[in-house]
Specification:
By secondary structure, the chain is an alpha/beta fold. The protein has one domain: TIM Barrel (Alpha-Beta Barrel). It has 12 helices and 8 strands. An 8-stranded parallel β-barrel has the order 1-2-3-4-5-6-7-8, surrounded by 8 helices. Strand 3, helix 6 and strand 4 form a beta-alpha-beta unit. Helix 1 packs antiparallel against helix 11, helix 4 runs parallel beside helix 5 and helix 8 runs parallel beside helix 9. The chain is globular. The structure holds dihydroflavine-adenine dinucleotide (FDA).
Length: 305
């Protein structure tokens, strides 16, 4: 049943009609539990609250699978405004973004122009930028963009997904760029031709890439809500005397909040991924796919408590 629900929500996540409707009608159905609001001031307020609890943040202006140049340019401008707001408000926050929101499905030139503008602003205001990883179809192109930009900028990192067969090889190839990588299990619906269909294999590969990246000396963000992966990371770090400034844990806003606070108390660096903006629908559907129990929150949002 879980698998059926997961596939259903992942199918819904790419529905253009519902995406448009969601933008028009604003945050609904309990999505506010996972999204910090629709505007930069909403995001600033949330980042400040998290910073006060000792947590770092990465903010994400929601947007994906954009197919018009004007929208991609607007998304890039929003990112630059967010970078300025981080600096003006003295916040401890990085920025995360998706290549399809920068125009990946339109033209490579547009993406590179948008990204260079954002990274220049990031450099000027001291804000680090992470390129999220999207579906398999875009993985190769995203990594190529990362490599080109990494040769020009220090303030850029990206994400690799444990569910893909190709990831270990990608990491070996990326090593020469000393990449700052966020390691995740992977959130999209992929074919067994390209991704491990069984959770156990995904978890095994996740452990493999956590160890691999921690031991090669590059900065590692372990992004998961899974206690088994968190404990495994702690074990490797302890066994190999990896200093606290070489890795961090990351979780999504609104998920396992007490666990986030515990990790801070234990002395680990915790970063929370905070999405904001009106294009919340696809993000929200992927969160429901990950944990159908979250559907209870949707039902409360629809029918009241
Ligand atoms: P998983 O979903 O297997 O959950 C494992 C366990 O965690 C559960 O069994 C439960 O014990 C606990 N758990 C999970 N959710 C819980 C909840 N709501 N309440 C209580 N317990 C809960 N993906 C991607 O493809 N590209 C990307 O760029 C990113 N970026 C990203 C950034 C950050 C900061 C995070 C945390 C995640 C991503 N992801 C992502 C999403 C990622 O790929 C993955 O889909 C989710 O993190 C879910 O996988 P977990 O590792 O959390 O474990």
């Amino acid at each position: 049943m879980e698998k059926v629900l997961r596939n259903f929500f992942l199918f819904l996540s790419k529905n253009k009609f519902f995406t448009k409707l969601a933008k028009k009608y604003g945050l609904r159905f309990g999505a506010g539990r996972f999204v910090a609001g629709e505007t930069i001031p909403n995001a600033v307020k949330t980042i400040r609250e998290l910073n006060e609890k000792g947590m770092s943040v990465t903010i994400d202006h929601l947007g994906e699978f954009i197919d018009s140049e004007a929208e991609a340019r607007y998304a890039a401008e929003e990112c630059i405004e967010a970078i300025k707001a981080i600096s003006e408000n003295n916040l401890d926050s990085q920025l995360s973004l998706k290549m399809t929101s920068m125009g990946l499905d339109i033209s490579p030139e547009l993406v590179m122009e948008n990204m260079r503008n954002i990274l220049d602003a990031g450099k000027e205001y001291g804000v680090f930028v992470t390129i999220d990883m999207e579906d398999y179809e875009r993985c190769q192109k995203t990594l190529e963009i990362f490599k080109e930009l990494r040769s020009e900028y220090d303030n850029i990192g990206t994400v690799v997904q444990a569910y893909l067969y190709r990831t270990v090889e990608d990491m070996e190839e990326l090593d020469q760029y000393n990449p700052n990588l966020r390691l995740v299990k992977g959130a999209y619906k992929e074919s067994p031709k390209v991704a491990f269909p069984e959770k156990k294999d995904v978890d095994d590969n996740f452990k493999k890439i956590i160890k691999m990246h921690l031991l090669n000396g590059n900065y590692t963000a372990v992004a998961t809500h899974d206690d088994a992966m968190i404990e495994y990371t702690k074990k490797i770090v302890e066994e190999h005397n990896i200093p606290n400034d070489q890795f961090e844990f990351q979780m999504l806003y609104g998920i396992r909040v007490e666990r986030q606070e515990e990790l801070i108390k234990e002395g680990y660096h915790m970063r929370v991924y905070v999405p904001y903006g009106n294009d919340w629908y696809g993000y929200f559907m992927r969160r429901l796919a990950e944990r159908p129990a979250n559907v209870a929150f949707v039902l409360k949002g629809v029918f009241g408590k």
